[in-house]
Amino acid sequence: MKCLTLAYTYNSPKFYVLGALSVFLFLAPLNAKAEVKNYQTRSTFEFYGQVNKSFVGYADGEDADVGVYDNNISSTRFGFKNSNDLGNGYFANMLLEVQMNGRSNSRTLQQGAAGTAASDVTERHARVGLGHKKVGALYIGRTSTASDGITEIDLAPLQNALTATPARHGAALEFRNKNTGALTGLQMSQVVDSFEGMQFAGGSASDGTNAYGAGFTDRFDLISYVSPRVNGFEFSAAAIQGGDHDFALRYQNDFEDQGLQVQAGVAYVDYRTVTDTAPGSNEVSGQWSGSASVKSDNGFGATVAYGRRTYEHRAAGIGTPQFYYTKVGYSWDGWGIALEHGRYKNIDTTTAADTSLYTYGVGVERDLGHGVGLSVFARNLDLDRDGLAVEQLYVYGTNLKIKF
Questions:
Q1: Total number of domains constituting the chain
Q2: How confident is the model at residue 106 (pLDDT cuts 50, 70, 90)?
Q3: Residue 228 falls inside a structural domain
Q4: Contact present, 91 and 133 (Cβ < 8 Å)
Q5: Positive or negative CA dihedral for 354, 215, 74, 291?
Q6: Are 216 and 170 spatial neighbours (Cβ–Cβ below 8 Å)?
Q7: pTM attached to this predicted model
Q8: Whole-angstrom Cα distance, residue 357 to residue 201?
């Protein structure tokens, strides 16, 4: 991605803002970030963003529909970054990023309620940091936890369509009873979770099993530490307001002689907000999760992910929530194709019925250059639950993302 750079010698903050906006609005094409460097104060200011929209459809065995939605894999957003070199290896920075919430494709409903929620703007990141190049940095504010995205480390194609979190497309779709044809009220989001951060799905927000509500946001008011990268390894830790904390170890490296790129990560979440000690309360206590991905210079890529969650005071018959996910793909000349498979077992802890959701997906993408990406995908979701026969769900769509 191209980058425009201007030098300013003024110290007034107004020149940072006006300079960045001027570069973006009048000079920068869509494939350029607007960045201003102040060589007198050794600071940089960057304005960036993207618009990511999807045309998504579903079929549940009896009904089908399509609609235009926001792509929850990588939402429409814009943000501001500032970095200051304080000298002698010390630095300070800030990040302010907001998300445009319109017709979220996670809220797709067969009842026709999709997109009825009003569009709004929400805070994704608002944090400041202070650190040293050899020691690492401390951050405070609303931002990602250490385990955020830990099971979505992915070098294979179709990162904007096929991920370890299939509920990013159509989370509120209900499974339909195979015998009666009626909707069961059981939503996709209740039986799938990729364990990619502190917030988790499976159960309702009021049944004591989910302290944060069934969703996929892993940005909280917190304090965190991120180490320098040493031999490809980076350690991070975070503690959110309320006491829960997590730890993560990430690795990335390019093996040029072998023609391989490698990325991986593993994380543990320690939930300290357990308050219900009654037998059968199903209070989540911990979570292990991680993923690894490789990509070769000849275009082949593969990704694997796994996670499991532990509970205290588990009710009789409640299984251990866990999942695995695999994806393989090939990219060439701006094109990419990928196949995925996942199994999500006993995610819903409100029932003792053994439950497994099997997912199978395929997609094709085209990198048009200049920050523009186009992809099409289709996914099958096959639910196997003791005592309940349901139709398979099919979700398909087209995504278009433009970065600036």
A1: 1
A2: low
A3: yes
A4: yes
A5: negative
A6: no
A7: 0.85
A8: 14
